[in-house]
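WARN no homologs supplied; continuing
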Amino acid sequence: MPRKKMTLVASRRPQLRKAAARDWSKEKAARFLSVLADTCNVSEACRRSGVPMTVAYRRRKMDAAFRTAWLEAIAAAYSRLELVLLDRAFNGTEKIVKRRDGSEERMLEYPNQLGLMLLKMHRETAIEAESELPAENVDEIRERLVRKLQRLKKRDEEQEARRAELRSDAPRDGDHGQSDGEAATPSD
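OK structure emitted
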């Protein structure tokens, strides 16, 4: 006889109950995240995975691992969307133009608004890239950083040696404040 699936119910005292078809499952979560990564659309992910939107948002709020996977899915979809838009801006999209005589001509259309938006988004990165240091300056900076790190390491080692020396000079239990060369005097 096959075992029925059980699910844990969160309440004052956790309890097990029979799993219902509408319950959240790993399969539903995987389907939801897959559709979210494909579409970058929460409503569509909910519809295709059979998960109510309120349940998905509650799950995201309560489950850190699911929240992380949600963010990764959105990031993947966003990156793919950005690539598609860049492709359209650079290569255009095919448009069919019908003439009055009924003939058709295919041409490429370049969306100016999309290009302007992408320029605006990446302007600071492009300016930053133009102001990058020449390669010879990078080598010089690298050498200066290595020398500085070596000086810091030497200073740290010297400080550690001084601390160790101070620890060895410090009185220990049973020394009663004696230093080298002093004789112990009996106390009354």
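The chain has a mean pLDDT of 79.
OK
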